[in-house]
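Page 37, continued from 36.
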């Protein structure tokens, strides 16, 4: 029992050591570009049974620079956006898989049609496209904290940065419209910290004794293999509300016939039903504000008031709204708080013909 405890204690110590070593082990396991690898052989021998002086021989070479990177969409779905929405975000990860610290120039391109990133088709362009780096490293775009950039500076070997592409969506786009964006990162010399380095150049011809450069990257969405660049695509998909507005009237009564076969004469009461329909399959619409300026040939019925947010059955107003809205300065007003996709809601009021 005692032995077991001691043994477990030893394991715990090992585990703690492993945790403490995590920052070091998270660093690149690739041999750094520009470093020297020296290998020394030694030889001992005897003559007449007497040990002679040890002889050694060494070989040293310089590790060349392998330039490699990846860019990947973070997540697997499109970014759902509303028409007119600003600062919509798609997220990418840029990883330096080189054996050297590099800068990475970042460029976003849009496409005119063609396949998007999620089995969809590009149909429009977003505007005001810009790139931010996840400065506080929480994986989420934080306005005012994360920094707008045109390149990633001094990215160590085998480390990843999260990059956000922000854009604005034009008004008037319909449900299902797609804007695809492609983020391309291109490796650059590290240069100075705080400045983007010069373009990388592959070493032509034979291996030299110095640090040569080899492009080792694959082909991404729009880049070629071994071009020091990598690209990935993501997209924005619009979910809009498609509202239709209709207005109908009916005679309720006249001063002579009452409600039996009433006619439209001065003194007749007329009921208006304003209906708003939100097409199925889209987004909810909220704060749908209606205002109706009454003609001077009619007088608003304050006795009847305004029925707000009632339902429809087919094309029939159900007159089941709640009292609400307002009348002032010859205008009937009311706001429908929310119209889900496929819903229809009404505003109903009455006037007397002058
Ligand atoms: Ca486009
Ligand atoms: Ca962030
Ligand atoms: Ca730099
Ligand atoms: Ca490439």
């Amino acid at each position: 029992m005692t032995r077991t405890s001691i043994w477990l204690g030893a394991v715990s110590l090992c585990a703690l050591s492993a945790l403490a070593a995590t920052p070091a082990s998270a660093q690149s396991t690739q041999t750094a570009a520009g470093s020297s690898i020296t290998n020394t052989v030694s030889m001992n021998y005897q003559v007449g049974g007497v040990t002679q002086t040890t002889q050694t021989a060494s070989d040293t070479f310089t590790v060349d620079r392998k330039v490699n990177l990846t860019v990947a969409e973070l997540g697997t779905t499109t970014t759902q956006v509303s028409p007119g929405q600003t600062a919509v975000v798609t997220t990418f990860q840029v990883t330096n898989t080189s054996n050297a610290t590099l800068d990475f120039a970042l460029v976003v391109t849009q496409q005119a049609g063609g396949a998007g990133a999620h089995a969809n088709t590009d149909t429009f362009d977003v505007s005001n496209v810009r790139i931010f780096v996840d400065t506080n490293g929480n994986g989420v775009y934080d306005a005012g904290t994360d920094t707008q950039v045109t390149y990633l500076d001094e990215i160590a070997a085998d480390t990843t940065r999260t990059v956000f592409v922000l854009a604005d969506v034009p008004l008037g786009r319909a449900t299902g419209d797609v804007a695809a964006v492609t983020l391309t990162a291109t490796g650059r010399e590290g240069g100075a910290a705080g400045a983007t380095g010069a373009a990388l150049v592959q070493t032509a011809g034979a291996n030299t004794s110095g640090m040569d450069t080899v492009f080792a990257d694959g082909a991404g969405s729009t880049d070629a293999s071994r071009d020091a660049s990598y690209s990935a695509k993501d997209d924005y998909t619009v979910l809009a509300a498609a509202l239709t507005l209709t207005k109908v009237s009916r005679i309720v009564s006249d001063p002579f016939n009452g409600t039996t076969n009433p006619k439209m004469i001065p003194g007749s009461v007329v009921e208006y039903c304003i209906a708003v329909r939100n097409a199925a399959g889209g987004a909810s619409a909220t704060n749908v504000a209606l205002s109706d300026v009454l003609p001077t040939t009619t007088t608003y019925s304050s006795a009847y008031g305004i029925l707000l947010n009632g339902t429809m059955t087919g094309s029939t107003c159900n007159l089941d709204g709640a009292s609400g809205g307002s009348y002032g300065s010859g205008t009937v007003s009311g706001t429908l708080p929310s119209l889900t996709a496929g819903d229809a809601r009404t505003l109903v009021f009455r006037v007397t013909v002058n």
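Residues 1-25 have pLDDT under 50 and may be disordered. Flag for discussion at group meeting. The chain has two domains: 65-238, 243-353.
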